[in-house]
Design a protein that fits this description.
heterodimer, A: mainly alpha, extended, B: mainly alpha, 2 domains, globular, transmembrane (chain B), 4-azaleucine resistance probable transporter AzlC (chain B)
């Protein structure tokens, strides 16, 4: 399967809103709040969205996911790089599932 | 009339590309991971090329994979676009700071150049601007390097992904959560992040239990970021 009309519409829509925002920031530069409530709100959005993605996955998962999340965090804080942290997390969840199933 | 900044286009262009090499290595790592996960989520190679080539926004593309469905009829088009809009809203603040790179008469050129801006190249360009070396060509140089790397590594990742038949049996389903967790940890700026992240997490957990679908991502994100802004305001007033 190459693609579908639905996927093309979704991707073009995502591309359009992303470009409009990026260009909008430049064009509206003199009218946008650089400080204050609205600026603080915009600044906090990405972190809040990512926290929303992670939290339910950890709560609904087994103890294996929680252990693996702790390992991922530990490796990332130590190495500051994506690959070792992700590999550590995946390995931890694999071993923890074997251990919990035993 | 700043002749010093515009003798040749290629000098600042390649200077920008060179300055962005360290962050582009990280872009490459995320690109491969995104490609592998995209294949796992049922995104075709053509769709990977279209999304990385046209949307070109890392966090939004990772979130899109979480919403993606393999059957076109159930693809949540509205939520996909809405999620991209909300996650990318922060670019309003980022690209606004690049205004000094363009003269008042260069609005169209400037707006078109913004397509190639990403968090990484924005940060490097802003650093160069502080030292007087940041120009539109510098930004474009870093941007083109990051863009081609992101596109190429996503294709590589999607191709590598075919070697994995059942992700769950190797624990690879956790790669998603691990990547989101790493993206989140990388955004840590200090104690001001505790309240928005905690409120977002709680709101998302409650919403996920009550409302079917992926609304918990948007609801958690909006409630958490508002809580963060309110907390910031309270702290500054006191």
């Amino acid at each position: 399967m190459w693609t579908s009309p639905e996927a093309v519409i979704a991707i073009l829509g995502m591309a359009l809103v992303t470009f409009v925002i990026k260009a909008g920031g430049l064009l509206l530069a003199n009218r946008l709040p650089q400080h204050g409530f609205a600026a603080a709100w915009l600044k906090h959005i990405p972190g809040a969205v990512l926290a929303s993605l992670v939290a339910p996955a950890l709560v609904t998962g087994s103890a294996a996911e929680v252990i693996a999340a702790a390992v991922t965090t530990l490796v990332y804080v130590t190495t500051r790089s994506l690959f070792p942290a992700m590999a550590g997390g995946v390995l931890a969840v694999y071993l923890a599932r074997l251990w919990l199933a035993a | 009339m700043s002749d010093a900044a515009t003798p040749r286009f290629s000098d600042p262009f390649f200077a920008g590309a060179r300055a962005c090499i360290p962050v582009v290595i990280s872009v490459a790592a995320y690109g491969v991971v995104w490609g592998v996960l995209a294949r796992g989520a049922g995104v075709s190679l053509l769709e990977v090329i279209m999304m990385s080539g046209l949307v070109f926004a890392g966090s939004a593309q990772f979130v899109a994979l979480d919403l993606w469905t393999t059957t076109p009829a159930t693809l949540p088009i509205g939520p996909l676009i809405l999620a991209a809009l909300i996650i990318n809203l922060r670019y309003l603040l980022l690209t606004a700071t690049l205004r000094p790179l363009f003269r008042p008469g260069q609005q169209v050129k400037g707006a078109l150049t913004m397509f190639i801006v990403s968090d990484e190249t924005w940060a490097i360009t802003l650093g160069a601007m502080a030292k007087g070396r940041g120009t539109a060509a510098f930004l474009l140089g870093g941007g083109v390097l990051a863009y081609t790397t992101w596109l190429a590594t996503a294709v590589i990742g999607h191709t590598l992904g075919s070697a994995i038949d059942d992700p769950r049996s190797y624990g690879l389903d956790f790669a998603f959560t691990a990547t989101f967790l790493v993206l989140l940890l990388g955004m840590w700026k200090g104690k001001g992040d505790v309240i928005p992240w905690l409120v977002a997490a709680l709101a998302a957990i409650v919403t996920a239990k009550m409302i079917p679908g992926s609304w918990y991502i948007l609801i958690g994100g909006m409630v958490g970021s508002l809580a963060g802004a309110i907390a910031d305001k309270v702290r500054h007033v006191d």
